[in-house]
Task: inverse folding
DNA sequence: CCGGCCATGTAATGTGTTACATGATTTA
DNA sequence: TAAATCATGTAACACATTACATGGCCGG
């Protein structure tokens, strides 16, 4: 029902411009490589592929498996991609659940705030490791897109690093602000 | 129509717990103070306030103006806030339009990529200045919430700083990768 | 031969913004 | 007195996820 929006088209045309693949693989590729700043679900991808095919922006050829298709970008599709990339950026307003909870953390309690910081640390360490792996892989492959891929990865890495430094600092600050709260027994 | 979700309730109850205010002021407060990580529209706020009032979580008293109400959190509301703050975080998957465009920046062209970096720099400088102002203000007011407010502001500042450093680096990298493209006259 | 992955697709549902409608109050 | 701001609220729309449904293929 929901006609996918132009932004989904950018992700789909862009990913297919790097390498032709099936809708299923497309989802995986977007998750793996663009996962730290983008996401697409099957509910968006399949309708988008069909629509883009009807518009002549992608071409489908039978895949190895009977039920699968391999999609590739047509010349028109490349033109459309350039056009879409120039279109104004309209991001949804931010909604960061972690920050919201920490902001009102006084009502949550010190222990739970520290637990949130622990989770954040773990998530960012994992993310950082994944980004470094991807970085190494991209550097090895020597694609024409490499400089562009690498700067986006670099921002991800810097953001993770800044967040990890912040976690350490935030922990100390919260412990300092309410020294006895976490160890005080309930009377 | 759309029943506001629990996350809106956190923002509304949390903001009102700091200081009672009208729905209109609530929007402004969320924009000013939580704006770098959260957002609520009137279409969410007003239905939420009415629902929370029916549930006895907030109380409304007439404001200075005839058509306005000042909402404050009740004891039940405070309990509910603590509960909501402990609920699992379910963020929407990320969708960063800038990163998406830079990732496929080869199809956009060097000049437009550099323009995107310029916009990013300007936006982050402005954001950083605003965060520093807010930081100073919070430190001056000496609220019990201050430590929690300050750590969220600090993450914002660190993220801006990291992004600004990244912009410089990204510019150099892109210029180095396609040295002649930006100055080459069209034949 | 069965569990898990590959593969496609649709319908229902949730979530949230934008646009619209209305009117009081303040300020220039 | 006109424009801007304060103030509340609803309806329509846009966007995306989740759940569901279906079936082929492969390895153990």
Result:
């Amino acid at each position: 029902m929901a006609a996918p929006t132009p932004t989904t088209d950018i992700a789909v045309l862009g990913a297919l411009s790097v390498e032709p693949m099936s809708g299923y693989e497309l989802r995986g590729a977007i998750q793996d490589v663009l996962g730290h700043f983008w996401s697409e679900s099957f509910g968006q991808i399949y309708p988008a592929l069909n629509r883009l095919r009807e518009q002549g922006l992608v071409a489908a050829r039978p895949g190895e498996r009977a039920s699968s298709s391999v999609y590739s970008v047509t010349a028109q599709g490349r033109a459309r991609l350039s056009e879409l990339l120039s279109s104004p950026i309209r991001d949804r307003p931010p909604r960061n659940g972690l920050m919201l909870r920490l902001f009102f953390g006084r009502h949550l309690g010190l222990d739970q705030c520290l637990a949130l910081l622990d989770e954040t640390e773990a998530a960012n360490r994992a993310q950082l490791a994944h980004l470094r792996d991807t970085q190494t892989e991209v550097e090895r492959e020597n694609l024409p897109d490499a400089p562009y891929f690498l700067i986006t990865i670099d921002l991800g890495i810097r953001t993770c690093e800044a967040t990890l430094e912040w976690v350490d600092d935030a922990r100390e600050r919260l412990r300092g602000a309410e020294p006895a709260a976490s160890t005080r027994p309930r009377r």
